């Protein structure tokens, strides 16, 4: 990133970041340089973040981690401090979209300087959404990572169209309402996927699989029918629901589109092998988890990034498996420049998409909050909610809540 601006007065030359210290070892705080924003970038003072299973996969399993310390975090909410010069290659997002003092949020992951678990980030302006007036920063940090994931997966891996802006005659012209299974619909990814499917009018065929305590809420968010993965017979129940939804019972495959929001070899993929038929497309959140992380220090988690190596003898011939990699969502040029700047704030402001419920993680230090959240992820405690915690409490920049 060519740096062509200087740090504004009052911004420290270094700041705190939460990083791994080794595989399955306690997290640590490191001091890292605060980077002035180059072309098309923005410097943000980070007030809130949220934890995702990816950080557990990285900290305990070393997933895609080259070396320690490794700075964590994919989501952020905070205050714009300063802007770099306009990116001459960006077709959209004019420089004056953002101003110092704006409350913003987003999903960024490419470089250390962009990671959300630090008090200042320097990130591309296209990875930043302005906070709509109806949202708090605590709500906003639950959104971007997994709303981007849901929209990327439904388009890139499952081939659905999500035109933007939605044409006025979309509901009349879009007659395609395939049966879609969302397995793990109470996960953060699943909750956003349901709402995206509802907004674009695909919800008539959506079957949601989650614990029964969530079913009422999942129907409110757009599921047509629900099954409980914790009860015996979930596979038969799901196939029966598909028969109820399909007017034409001879339709093959019964469930053409399957979104596995969990990616657990034994918990989601094995039952899905019994549901998917030839020509079913199955999008799987990577990594596939062969063994979950646990508080038993002797056992390390095991992951697999190649879906073709998982349960290979158990899939019916002709099932199409896709491993989801949201970190490549910018290959879609329209999403690259519009998803975070325009589409996400508009969906939130209109109420089309609701943020996940938040569980606020308290702690007297940045490290304590980060570690507590990681420990809760290891215990697989989140259920229909996102772990949200305060990042900067140094008060250098006015980041009071809106
Ligand atoms: N590759 C990518 O692009 C990408 C992007 C985003 C996320 N991911 C991965 O996707 C996974 C989910 O992420 P997340 O943030 O959405 O997780 P999350 O919200 O923390 O997931 C927790 C939920 O998982 C549900 N669950 C657990 N085991 C299940 C099973 N066997 N069947 C159905 N539901 C089950 C639980 O449902 P109940 O409450 O109903 O029990 C719980 O609500 C993680 O491994 C993450 O790393 C990958």
Write structural notes for this entry:
With 402 residues, the chain is of the alpha/beta class. The chain has 2 domains: 14-143 and 355-390, Alpha-Beta Complex (Quinone Oxidoreductase, Chain A, domain 1); 147-327, 3-Layer(aba) Sandwich (Rossmann fold), CATH 3.40.50.720. Helix content is 25%, strand content 22%. The chain contains 10 helices and 17 strands. The strands form 4 sheets. Strands 3, 4, 5, 6, 7, 16 and 17 form a 7-stranded mixed sheet that branches. The protein is globular. The protein starts with 13 loop residues before the first strand and ends in a 12-residue tail after the last strand. NADP nicotinamide-adenine-dinucleotide phosphate (NAP) binds next to helix 1, helix 3, helix 5 and helix 8.
Q: DSSP strand (E) fraction?
A: 15-25%
Quaternary organization? single chain
The SSE string, one letter per element, is EEEHEEEEHHHEHEHEHEHEEEEHEHE
What compounds are bound to the protein? NADP nicotinamide-adenine-dinucleotide phosphate
User: Superfamily at the CATH H level of the largest domain?
Assistant: NAD(P)-binding Rossmann-like Domain
The CATH topology name of the largest domain reads Rossmann fold
Keywords: Oxidoreductase
Family: Belongs to the zinc-containing alcohol dehydrogenase family.
Domain Enoyl reductase (ER): 22-388
InterPro entries: ADH-like_N, ER, GroES-like_sf, NAD(P)-bd_dom_sf, Trans-enoyl_RdTase-like
């Amino acid at each position: 990133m060519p740096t062509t601006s200087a740090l504004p007065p009052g911004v420290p030359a270094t700041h705190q970041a939460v990083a791994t210290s080794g595989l399955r070892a306690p997290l640590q705080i490191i001091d890292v340089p605060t980077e002035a924003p180059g072309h098309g970038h923005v410097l943000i003072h980070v007030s809130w973040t949220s934890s995702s299973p990816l950080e557990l996969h990285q900290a305990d399993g070393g997933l895609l981690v080259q070396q320690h310390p490794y700075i964590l975090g994919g989501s952020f909410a905070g205050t714009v401090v300063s802007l770099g010069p306009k990116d001459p290659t960006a077709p959209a997002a004019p420089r004056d979209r953002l101003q110092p003092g704006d409350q913003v949020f987003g999903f960024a992951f490419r470089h250390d300087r962009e990671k959300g678990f630090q008090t200042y980030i320097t990130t591309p302006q296209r990875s930043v959404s302005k906070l709509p007036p109806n949202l708090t920063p605590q709500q906003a940090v639950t959104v971007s990572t997994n709303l981007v994931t849901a929209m990327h997966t439904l388009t890139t891996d499952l081939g659905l169209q999500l035109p933007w802006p939605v044409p006025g005659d979309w509901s009349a012209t879009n007659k395609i309402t395939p049966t879609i299974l969302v397995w793990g619909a109470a996960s953060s990814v699943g909750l956003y996927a349901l709402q995206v499917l509802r907004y674009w009018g695909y919800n008539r065929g959506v079957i949601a699989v989650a614990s029964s305590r969530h079913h009422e809420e999942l129907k409110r968010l757009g599921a047509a029918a629900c099954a409980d993965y914790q009860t015996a017979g979930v596979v038969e129940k799901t196939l029966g629901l598909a028969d109820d939804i399909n007017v034409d019972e001879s339709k093959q495959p019964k469930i053409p589109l399957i979104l596995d929001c969990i990616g657990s070899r034994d918990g989601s993929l094995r039952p899905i092998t019994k549901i998917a038929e030839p020509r079913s497309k199955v999008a799987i959140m990577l990594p596939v988890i062969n063994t979950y992380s646990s508080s038993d220090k002797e056992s390390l988690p095991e992951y697999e990034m190649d879906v073709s190596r998982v349960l290979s003898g158990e899939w019916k011939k002709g099932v199409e498996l896709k491993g989801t990699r949201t970190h490549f969502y910018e290959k879609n040029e329209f999403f690259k420049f519009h998803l975070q700047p325009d589409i996400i704030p508009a969906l939130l402001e209109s109420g089309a998409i609701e943020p996940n419920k938040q569980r606020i993680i308290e702690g007297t230090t940045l490290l304590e909050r980060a570690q507590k959240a990681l420990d809760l992820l290891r215990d697989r405690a989140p259920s229909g909610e996102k772990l949200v915690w305060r990042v900067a409490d140094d008060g250098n920049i006015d980041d009071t809540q809106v």
